Amino acid sequence: MQEIANELETYNTHIAVLQETRWLNERWIDKKDYTLMYGWRALEEEMVTGFILDKDARRSLIGFEPVNGRI
Question: Are the CB atoms for 37 and 56 separated by under 8 Å?
């Protein structure tokens, strides 16, 4: 995750979409300089879409409610 956060900073990008993430259980991971959010999984093998936001974009976020693993 830190490598992706570093790329966001390098290219002055505030948000990126991550495809086929495989993290279990949590839907929200907060770090000092970035936040990772992703949808829920119905099956153990299922991969989901996630988003990584820098701290500026995180402050602008009102809410995050995943509809499914892809939306």
Answer: no
The first and second tokens of residue 31, run together, are 């770090």
pLDDT in tens, 4-31: 888 888 999 999 988 887 766 667 888 9
The C-alpha atoms of residue 70 and residue 49 are separated, in whole angstroms, by 5
Handedness of CA 35, 53, 3, 50 (dihedral sign): positive
57: which 2 tokens?
A: 């974009």
Backbone angles phi, psi at 32, to 5 degrees: -60, -45
DSSP label of 2: H
Give the Å distances, CA to CA, from 52 to 11, 36, 43: 14, 4, 23
Whether the predicted model's global pTM rises above the 0.85 cut: no
